[in-house]
Write the structure tokens for this entry.
Amino acid sequence: MTTHHRPSYTRRDLLRLVGITGLAATTAACAGPGGDSGGSGAPKAVQSGKPTGEVSFAHWRGEDRQTFEQLMAAFAAKYPDVKITQDIAPSNDYNAQALQRLRGGNVGDAFATFRGAQFENFVKAQVYTDLSGSDLLSRFEPGLLQAGAQDGKQYGLPYQVVFPMPLYNVDLFERAGVTEPPADWDGFLALCEKLKGQGVVPIAWPGGEPGNAGQLFNSMVSNNAPTDDMCTKIENGEAKCTDDWFLKTLNQYVQLRPYFQPNPTGTAVEPAQQLFATGKAAMLATGSYHLAAVRGLGAKFPMNVIAPITTSKDQARNEGVYNATFILGVNARSDVQPAALAWLDFLSEPANAATYANATAQHLSVKGIDYTNADLKATQPWLTRKTLLAPRYQFLDLDIRNAVEGACVKVVGGTAPEQAAEEAQRIVDQRR
């Protein structure tokens, strides 16, 4: 099975994408699924025509429900013969169960998927239609569409660009005398010590919830690994969890133990968000996709994202990490494909994309968006920095990903790094 790994953007590439206003979409991609109903054969091209019928839109972003309801009302006014509803599941459930639910065609006429294992599984099962000939592709930045493509066919439309790096409270950083994020590992540990000295938790980390706990992993391995395809190599046997670079990463997680909240390995994402939103924690180790959720909890302070640089400054290849997610597609088993396609077309109109982006604090891959959201403006410079496509989504076997990321959780919980690495590698070997 082929995986698509896009190299890090150069500053020139991203500046070209940002556009004249300096606020246009420059996004990244979390991969999406492919084609028909299951089994072998070529994926079916999406059906076009007059949009009619009842459309089910399946996704996992419950926090976006209200914004999508607003957009759906405008969509219904444009297409009075279409009724559209949302089918929303928690992200972990969606990752585990969406394929089984959507392949029947009863829900998810239009749907979104995660990059990585879910993308590959949907391609195998031929749940996606082929969008290759669709006019709406021209609305997206060409370099960002690749995350929804495979074997020369465009299955999905990568919609969101997120930075799966810790959020930070700018005010608390400045109070600790830090005006610029540190450029090396010693500096990051010193930052954590300064924050702890201010009487706050340096890092709120939801170590008890794998889907969010693993986001810190992206930054921790991005510069330690000898190559940018480190997780692909662990999965195919070219690299091991017992390699020096991964043991170094585990030992760095150990160094972070004093800077997490109490019982970090038993903490779910909501309590971690609360700690951060109320100013009791200086960082939230998830990603920019939680900007809107934290605002919803009442946070008023300025925020940005920070990547722990785990090497010396001169050895760091990447300034941070990004991901493209929410890959939109049309279900091959749907009886209302023209209406589902019309919904994706509607979402990709710049004005509607801007409504979604600014309401949810998500950068998008659609061309020509005017970002007015203050948090999007604050994080916008990351669109022009040297960032790596989030490594954790290189894993196509979720058991392997859980084992590798689980080793990081274990060492924070007290397991010796060598033991955690060996246990993880045993699972990798069993799954290969």
Remarks:
- The longest strand covers residues 320-330.
- Residues 1-40 have pLDDT under 50 and may be disordered.
- The first helix runs from residue 11 to 18.
- The chain has 18 helices and 13 strands.
